Every structure is written in structure tokens, then in C-alpha cells.
């Protein structure tokens, strides 16, 4: 199998590869222990670059490099082995910074910041945060059947189509996607819950990037605030379990942003939008 470059592994970690490319990379990682170690090294590097209030954020790299150029010894005076050790790491660091800058411009200019948050790819996360491995992508589908990335607002008549990303080392096998409005009404997208008395369970999923779910779903939503939840789990939950939790006064959300639901051993993507 053709080796995968460090640049493609960085794109894979950022979710900026196609579904077919992700499948090829995952197959390569499954067969190569050294590639898996390289992936973990790049993941650690990205986590360090994203760390809030880091020293790199307060450093003028251009001025520092110019100063080094003035005071550095001539190339002939520098031991040759130093460059053999430092050059690959420096190249990876510069490439990672470039990719992060490119992604920042892409998200800022081409997508609503709330969408990036729902995809769980926004700001820095702790290494032990389960939500860092998952995300849900949502698109609206208008009356002409054209898809559009979901922004901060949703027209009541538009349908919704979803895709998900789940790349946890210990895979999540199940997913629920639902919305809760300001009156605590629950609207189920996955699993389908169309009839009173039914009690369906989470849908089964596979690991990977941008796995598309097949349906365009219309709900009779009410105007106002709607919180969308994507709940990833390793064992299935029933609709009745989630609805009982949402009815619990201790779970009711007051002022402020939506909170994670107290469902054990889950990773969650959460986003709030306005229905018009």
C-alpha cells in the first residue's frame, strides 16, 4: 500500500479529507504501526499548537527568526548532524502552522462559527475530553432539493440532512440526533420516532470521517430556539431514557449555553440555532 504523507495525516486529523481518502488512510494506519505512531505524534503537536494562551501566541516568530539569522554562526560552523535532527521536525511544525492558518481562514470565511462548534473542531480541548473525537455536520435542504450548510438559523419548511465523524480510539458504535426546543419538546431525527408507544434505540454507526446518513428529514418545528444534540455511545440508549432525562428538572437549561446531558460513557456534539 502506498505510504501516506505527513501532510495527508494532518489533513486527516483535521477532517479535511474526502470519505474515500479517509478510508485509504485508515486502511494504511491499520497495517502500519509506525504510521500510527506518526499520527499520534502529529496529534500531540496539533494539541500543543491549539493550547490557549500558549507561548507561541505571544511570540513574534518573524522577528525571532531574523534575530537568529543575524547572530547564527556560518553554516560551515554548525555541526551537520544538528540539521538532520531538527530539519524534519521544523518542516512538520511549519506545515502544521500553515494548515491551521488555512483552516482558520476557511472556517471564518466559508462557514458559520457555530457550525464549526457543532462539528467539534473549533477550539482547544483537553486530552481526556471524549467530545474531541466526534462531530455532527448538518445541511438544510430547501424546496428545490439543494443542500446548504446549516447556519445559525433554520427555516421551518426546510429539511435537514446529517453526516457524522467518529474517530475515538475506542470506537463509538451508536448515535442519536435530536433537537430540544425552549418548551422542552423533543424532535427526533435519528432514530426515527414517529408513533406514540414506540421506544426505538440509537442507530448503529461505523467509525470514520464525514459518514453520511441517508435521509432528508422534515420536522414540524416551532419557531424559536432549538438545541441540536448528537449523542455518541458504545452501547445503545432508548428514546424513553433520553426523554426521561430531559424531563428531569435538574437537566432543564436556564440562562447560558446548552450543557452536556448526563448520559454515561458518551461523547456529545451540541449546537443551538434559531428556527424561523
Explain this structure.
The chain is an alpha+beta fold and 276 residues long. It folds into 2 domains: 104 residues, no CATH class; 162 residues, no CATH class. The chain contains 7 helices and 10 strands. The strands form 2 sheets. Strands 3, 5, 6, 7, 9 and 10 form a 6-stranded mixed β-sheet that branches. A hairpin with a 5-residue loop joins strand 1 and strand 2. It is globular and about 50 Å long. The chain starts with 5 loop residues before the first helix and ends with a strand. About 17% of the residues have low confidence.
Over the alpha carbons, how many angstroms does the gyration radius reach? 22 Å
Say how many strands there are: 10
Number of helices: 7
**What are the low-pLDDT stretches, counting only 5+ consecutive residues below 50?**
53-59, 75-86, 96-117, 119-123
Which percent range describes the beta-strand content?
A: 15-25%
Span of the ends, CA to CA: 50 Å
**What is the H/E string?**
HHHHHHEEEEEEEEEHE
Amino acid at each position: 500500500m502506498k505510504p501516506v504523507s505527513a501532510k495527508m495525516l494532518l489533513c486527516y486529523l483535521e477532517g479535511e479529507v474526502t470519505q474515500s481518502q479517509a478510508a485509504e488512510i485508515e486502511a494504511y494506519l491499520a497495517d502500519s504501526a509506525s504510521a500510527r505512531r506518526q499520527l499520534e505524534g502529529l496529534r500531540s503537536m496539533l494539541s500543543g499548537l491549539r493550547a490557549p494562551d500558549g507561548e507561541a501566541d505571544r511570540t513574534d516568530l518573524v522577528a525571532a527568526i531574523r534575530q537568529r539569522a543575524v547572530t547564527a554562526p556560518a553554516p560551515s560552523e554548525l555541526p551537520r548532524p544538528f540539521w538532520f535532527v531538527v530539519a524534519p521536525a521544523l518542516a512538520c511544525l511549519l506545515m502544521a502552522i500553515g494548515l491551521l492558518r488555512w483552516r482558520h481562514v476557511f472556517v471564518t470565511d466559508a462557514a458559520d462559527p457555530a457550525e464549526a462548534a457543532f462539528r467539534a473542531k473549533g477550539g482547544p480541548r483537553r486530552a481526556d475530553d471524549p467530545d474531541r473525537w466526534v462531530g455532527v455536520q448538518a445541511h438544510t435542504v430547501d424546496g428545490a432539493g439543494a443542500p446548504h450548510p446549516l447556519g445559525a438559523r433554520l427555516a421551518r419548511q426546510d429539511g435537514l440532512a446529517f453526516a457524522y465523524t467518529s474517530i475515538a480510539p475506542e470506537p463509538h458504535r451508536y448515535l442519536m440526533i435530536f433537537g430540544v426546543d425552549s418548551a422542552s419538546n423533543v424532535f427526533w431525527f435519528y432514530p426515527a420516532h414517529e408513533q406514540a408507544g414506540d421506544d426505538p434505540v440509537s442507530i448503529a454507526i461505523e467509525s470514520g470521517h464525514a459518514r453520511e446518513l441517508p435521509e432528508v428529514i422534515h420536522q414540524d418545528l416551532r419557531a424559536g430556539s432549538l438545541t441540536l444534540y448528537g449523542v455518541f455511545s458504545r452501547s445503545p440508549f432508548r428514546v424513553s431514557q433520553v426523554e426521561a432525562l430531559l424531563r428531569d428538572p435538574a437537566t432543564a437549561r436556564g440562562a447560558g449555553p446548552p450543557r452536556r446531558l448526563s448520559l454515561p460513557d458518551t461523547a456529545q456534539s451540541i449546537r443551538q440555532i434559531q428556527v424561523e
